[in-house]
Amino acid sequence: MDSHTTGTSCGLCSFVIQTLRGQWFMMFASFLIITGAGATYLFGVYSKDINATLGYDQSTLNLLSTCKDLGANVGVLSGLLAEVTPVWFVLLIGSAMNFAGYFLIWLAVCGKIPKPKNFPESRRIMLGLMKGYVGLSGAVFTQLYLAIYEDDSKSLILLIGWLPALISMVFVYTIRTMKVSSHPNELKVFYEYLYISIALALCLMGLTIAQKQVTFSHYGYVGSCVAVCVLIFLPLAIAIREELATRRQKRKPVDAPNRITVDGPPFPESKPATILHSQSSENQTSCSLTAVDNLGQIGGKYVPRPLIMTLVLSGVGDLLVAFPIPSSVYIASLIIGFSYGAHLTLLFTIISELFGLKYYSTLFNCGQLASPLGSYVFNVQVVAKLYDKEALKQLAVKGMTRSMVRELTCMGKECYRLSFVILAGANFFGALVLFVLVMRTRDFL
């Protein structure tokens, strides 16, 4: 092997190591882990199998759903663990718990075991992107299980048991605290990631609607899954591109004079100067950053985030479910999904701005307590009980009792009408409380 081939191989190995250790690959790995972390949103797909296998009524099923939300959102322990242990250890613990939990559920619904008795800087953009991928993960897993298992929803439980655990284990050393300098194209790359996530969301929405309207063959599901996977792995191409650009920049010789002039006053030698590729790109970048900086100031003074969060909690989606019209379920799903995603993103951004980042992992998980608490109060105590009450009324009309049927099922608009009216009222009350927060923090948020 000649020296040129050896040098090329060493250079390739060095670049692969640089990419795997780089910040952009870490971000790509974060997307994959987060995409696999949204199994809680798939409960509605496989809950019917739990209901049919274990014979639960809606109240018991919703209590199980609340326990699921409790485990997914009450991460105070994981937040405290992250304060004193490396990130890879937290990921390994999460992987083991994820697999153990869902694997046991899969064993139960398949009858393989006896029935159980109980069951820094760009943080705003990063939070938005990560929470966006969490919201999309349920739809991603749906496409994966349709392509692999077709319509066997029991196997979905097994899939969400082993795949997220495997992803976390693969990238266990990738997610870590890094000390990196600011990237010149950082905002541009974040926007590219945003565009990819929007394209993924639109693709998933289109596939979901199409699969409800048209019967897909197995090859059709496989094709849909491939399209989704391409969009999921597209950030990897961006990560490799940025690492290549960084590598070329480091290798580029810099023969700079003592004083550098770029269409304006000279930069003294004692101050750091950035050498750009061309004068036109410097002007273009300067204009773009000027616009962004001023828009940020405008947005900070006129539209505080708590106010946006107040507007998100409108309750319109709940009212569309309570008083349905033709195709209103699709519209309600879009409104509720958008509101939920925006609410979570804004909530954790506001927490970071009010309390800082020193104990953010703990505060983040404390903030997530709202989800399981709300789930227990409204899902178990309100929605489930009103659903079962209406279902028992329908059984009585048929001259039947609860002991005569295995599954307690309610049919018709009345099943959820009162429940979602109550949810809409709760959202409106939450919006009023948030408006108080807007007034108290208007001077510094």
List the helices and strands and how they pair.
Elements lengths: L2 H19 L1 H13 L7 H12 L3 H16 L2 H9 L2 H23 L13 H27 L3 H18 L15 H28 L4 H34 L27 H24 L2 H8 L3 H7 L5 H28 L4 H8 L2 H28 L19 H25 L4
Helix pairs in contact: 2-7, 2-10, 4-16, 5-15, 6-8, 7-8, 7-9, 7-10, 7-14, 9-10, 12-14, 12-17, 13-14, 13-17, 14-15, 16-17
Care to describe what's here?
The protein is 73% helix and 0% strand. By secondary structure, it is an all-alpha fold. The longest helix is centred in the middle third of the chain and has 34 residues, at 218-251. It has helices at 3-21, 23-35, 43-54, 58-73, 76-84, 87-109, 123-149, 153-170, 186-213, 218-251, 279-302, 305-312, 316-322, 328-355, 360-367, 370-397, 417-441. Helix 5 (76-84) packs antiparallel against helix 15, helix 7 (123-149) packs across helix 8 and helix 12 runs antiparallel to helix 17 (417-441). It has 17 helices and no strands.
Shape: globular
Oligomer class: single chain
Instruction: List the helices and strands in order.
Output: HHHHHHHHHHHHHHHHH
Structural class by secondary-structure content: mainly alpha
What is this structure, in a nutshell?
By secondary structure, the chain is mainly alpha-helical.
What descriptors fit this protein?
about 450 residues; mainly alpha; 17 helices; globular
